[in-house]
Amino acid sequence: MPEPEGELDLPIPVPRRRRRRVMPESPAPAQQAAVLPISAQYAAVLAMLAWVVTAMAGWGLAGALGGPPLAGAVLGAAVEQVVEGLLVVPVLARRRSWPCSDPVRGRVIAAGAEVGVKVADVRTLGSSRGPVRSVAVVGSARRPRVILGEQLAASAPPELEALVAHQIVKSRGLAPHRLISMTILIWAVFGVLIDWWDTNAVATLLLMLMACLYSGLLATGLCLRFADRRADRRVGEALGAGRLAGALESQQRAGDICPPGFSLWIYLVCPQSALPDRLARLRAAQCAPSTAPPAESSWPNESR
After folding, report:
1. pLDDT by residue (tens digit) across 36-56?
2. Which of 23, 105, 234, 254 is 20 to 30 A from 288 (CA-CA)?
3. Do 156 and 103 form a contact (C-beta atoms < 8 A)?
4. How far apart are CA 102 and CA 38, in angstroms?
């Protein structure tokens, strides 16, 4: 076969351009949801096992005494929640905290007065596991005790009043009797379904254990969402929607909502639920024109 004369006119391979991966942009710090550290979340779930243990103990005790097991489990869980929320946690918080400084104390009491609540005491609580910049409320709803994180009390930022007022109103929506009522209602529905579904004793015990844990998480999430929206509305009307939105964003940027690991703060801190949506509503309420009629001027010569 004769060889072709000259150079072969072959196409020159062109290297392919490297494809650039479009990396999703991370949201701004103010738009990220405030979440607890992973170790603190695990510690909070493990802390709920005390409630599950008391519920199972009530289940077994009621069965041994010839009573309805579901009623015994509900009673055991309710007793544990009342003892923990109204006795153990407030007492430990008071014993481990110390009085706050007078200037910060005055600001906190004034913030409570803005939302119609008389604050009984203001204290500071730290943690050896890390800095804390959160606000907690314990005690009765009429005369609550406000507990500030050590770093938050030391810095005393300008948004302190808005954060305190929001937490005071929010704590009323997370009252123990509301959480217990919601948990019992959800758990009763699960209990009826499990009782209707005929299974052996071991399967029934495991299903009730899962229903107990899930009903507590679901009730906490529902009450937390309701309490956040109620607090946004009331504090926004009292202090201004824009001021509250700025305070929540500043707290979000600062972080340190809860120290990592197991600490007393996992019983005290309340994470923010659906924060980006709530911030959007607050900004919209801030920009919305006021529908109130303009006030008449008291100056006699101003209308001339």
Report:
1. 788 888 888 788 777 778 877
2. 254
3. yes
4. 35
